[in-house]
Amino acid sequence: MPANAAPPHRAKRLIVSIHDVSPRSERQVDQLAEALSRRVGDARFAMLVIPDHWREAPIAGNAAFHSRLRGWADAGVEMFLHGWCHRDETPATEGLAGFKGKHMTAGEGEFLNLPYQTARDRMAEGKAMLEDILGRPLAGFIAPAWLYGEGALKALADVGFDLAEDHMKVWRPATGEVLARGPVITWASRSKARIRSSLFFSALARTALGPMPTVRVAVHPGDTTVPALLESIDRTLARFAASHAVSRYAALLPGAA
């Protein structure tokens, strides 16, 4: 039985996402979508969309990219807002926030240090723009690099997103209810050391995370530049598609079919 037709009685779920979707990464996103489809089925994944990637690739006014987004959504891809520009424009230099900004991302923790009102404005504007383009509600919000500051966490509940995600969980912003726990499996391509460490972690995860009821796999456009990462992604998807039902994030919500 193909992975996208997994028996409905399976309790375990595999949730897959493509990050950093924008006009700047369109070719790589197509490559990733093709690779994912071979393992989990056509459009059986989520896309995380950036409205203006690094202030260099605005979606507003890009009719061709609007059409692509609608086509993906119409085919069944879940759509999330993924920040606004994906760049940390208010970097911290001290404390835990400074450590996260320096070591957990390459200057891309956009929502780690934003004050509440700025975070709320970016979330609300991005949500309105994408929902207008798609003609349907977004599935939720996922911060760039999975990093949230206090202002962003407060804004999430106020803007009205159904779902949010960080490295270790998926939750409902309105109530704080945690819907899934466990580390997301992802890869890094920006240095040889990070490539090695992500290959090591994904290999470990293929064994260690097997018992988890929900396994999340996230891929990035940069992964397409490293053949070893693409091979690891394929092996990871094959492993979990054999034991977990390929699912949508929305299936985690209470009362979902």
Total beta-strand segments:
9
Structural class by secondary-structure content: alpha/beta
What portion of residues is helical?
25-40%
Q: Which architecture per CATH? A: Alpha-Beta Barrel
The secondary-structure element order is: EHEHEHHEHEEEHEHE
Major sheet size, sense and barrel closure: 9 strands, mixed
Distance between the termini: 21 Å
Oligomer: single chain
Strand content: 5-15%
CATH superfamily: Glycoside hydrolase/deacetylase
- Estimated radius of gyration: 17 Å
- Poorly predicted parts: 1-10, 93-104
Number of separate helices = 7
InterPro entries: DUF2334, Glyco_hydro/deAcase_b/a-brl
Pfam families: DUF2334
Protein name: Polysaccharide deacetylase family protein
What order do the helices and strands come in, and which of them pair?
Elements: E1 13-21, H1 26-40, E2 46-49, H2 63-75, E3 78-81, H3 95-103, H4 116-134, E4 140-142, H5 150-159, E5 164-165, E6 169-171, E7 178-181, H6 192-208, E8 214-219, H7 227-241, E9 245-246
Parallel strand pairs: 1-2, 1-8, 1-9, 2-3, 3-4, 4-5
Antiparallel strand pairs: 5-6, 6-7
Helix pairs in contact: 1-7, 4-5, 6-7
